[in-house]
């Protein structure tokens, strides 16, 4: 499960950064997605089943971000911020 969660986070990072033209925004998204990945890894390592079950929805949300408009990345930043807040609340 840990590997699949990490793979989802890395896939999201790759998809967002490919085709992005705004260097500052790219870096912000990359940094935030790395933070998401780190938090998911910590939760996975904890072995807490209730938290692990909640992570499934995060994977789905990250996959949904793949369809983001690459010319307007602000919604992506907002969505990743929401994910980080939800991870912090776990």
Gist of the model:
By secondary structure, the chain is an all-alpha fold. It is 80% helix and 0% strand. The chain has one domain (2-89).
Task: Name its key features.
90 residues; mainly alpha
Total strands: the figure is 0
How would you state the average pLDDT, rounded?
Answer: 74
Structural class: mainly alpha
Separation, N- and C-terminal Cα atoms: 18 Å
Shape: elongated
Number of domains: 1
Percent of residues in beta strands?
under 5%
What oligomeric state is this? single chain
Rg, rounded, reads 13 Å
Number of helices: 4
Low-confidence residue ranges: 17-24
Q: Helix and strand string, N-terminal first?
A: HHHH
Written description of the protein model:
The protein is mostly helical and 90 residues long. The chain has one domain. The protein contains four helices and no strands. Helix 2 packs parallel to helix 4. The longest helix is centred in the middle third of the chain and has 24 residues. The protein is elongated and about 40 Å long. The two termini are 18 Å apart. About 9% of the residues have low confidence.
């Amino acid at each position: 499960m840990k590997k699949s969660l990490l793979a989802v986070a890395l896939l999201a990072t790759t998809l967002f950064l490919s085709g992005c033209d705004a260097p500052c925004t790219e870096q912000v998204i990359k940094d935030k997605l790395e933070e998401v990945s780190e938090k998911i890894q910590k939760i996975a390592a904890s072995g807490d089943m209730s938290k692990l079950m909640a992570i499934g929805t995060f994977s789905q949300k990250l996959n949904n971000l793949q369809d983001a408009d690459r010319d307007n990345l602000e919604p992506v930043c907002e969505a990743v911020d929401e994910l980080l807040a939800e991870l912090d609340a776990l």
